[in-house]
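Case study 2.
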Amino acid sequence: MKQIAILGSTGSIGRNTLRVVEALNGSFGVAALGAGGNVALLAEQIERHRPRLVSVQDEVAADRLSFELRRRDVVRRPKIGAGVEALSEVATVEGAEIVIGAVVGARGLLPTYHALEAGRRVALANKETLVVAGELMTRAAERSGAELLPVDSEHNALHQCLRGEARREVRRLILTASGGPFRTARRETIESATPEQALQHPTWRMGDKITIDSATLMNKGLEVIEARWLFDFSADEIDVIVHPQSIVHSMIEMIDGSIIAQMGVTDMRHAIQYALTYPARYQTALPPLDLAQLGKLEFHAPDTERFPCLDLAYRALRAGGTMPAVLNAANEAAVEAFLEGKIRFGDIPRLINAACNAHTVEPASTLDAVLAADAWARDQVKSNHTTSGQQREITEQTK
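Prediction:
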């Protein structure tokens, strides 16, 4: 029985990972779980999977978890830690061969880095880790012999398409995008969209942050940067195409013009199981893809005038250094402000662009350098949206 650790066990990927573990019927055990503040769900997971170690976001959540475990009369209680250091302990817990990296945002950076340093297989669902510090992560993996396997459906599909293919025979990678809830919307509608509208993803059920990223197409931009580090392809060798049905998860084009695609049902458990069992393939509880019922499959070029975040990501990748870290942090800060009702949907790309334009690129050669760029970008966005909000309020009052 292989032991795993899950960073982000109460999120969508974490919950689905535990479903896959249960479906694989004794092939995998759970050594450690890292979560945030969803203490009730974490307590259920502890009771069911009996990890030796867990982490939560802070001491308050740790106290609540201890109380909840006592209330449930859980006999085998794990060691409980709090904060980023405790999450890194989960990532490097003794005996765990595989670490599922599913913490949302830049918070997963340090734990993932430590897991790679420790030589673990990291099944990565946190794309921000490679966006912010791709060079550092891949270098750590090379030094320790760790494996980086993608759990994002698009990169998992690329991994499957590239199996057995010679790098010199692959012309480009093609990431597919659903187009999000505003794929056919007019620019004016997108500009003034509410959080409720932006969170209505047409094909996937995900957390709020990644769903907003899908609505802006920033999610696909971040995936372009992630693909560069996972597969060592340049920005010019990675394309994006809009595919509303989300059946073709991604493709590769060979130098002779052949296209190899990975298709499947829209369920993250497929990618999770692939990353856990690679290089073997196991039977799955998921229904097979019924080709006869598909109808049509559509493909469209992305509209970067209505969705400028995709171009911003390509620009950041080409600039290199600390610019992708600034792009990612500015996006996280802008999305948070939008979800809190502090800015408009159309302000998200404008705030990201302003932060990137104001940034002087430095080498991303240390964790300190990328973390400093991350903090600078968050402050920049907060300052800019506060100022622009005040100006908008003054303008509206004088009408």
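Confidence is low (pLDDT under 50) at residues 393-399.
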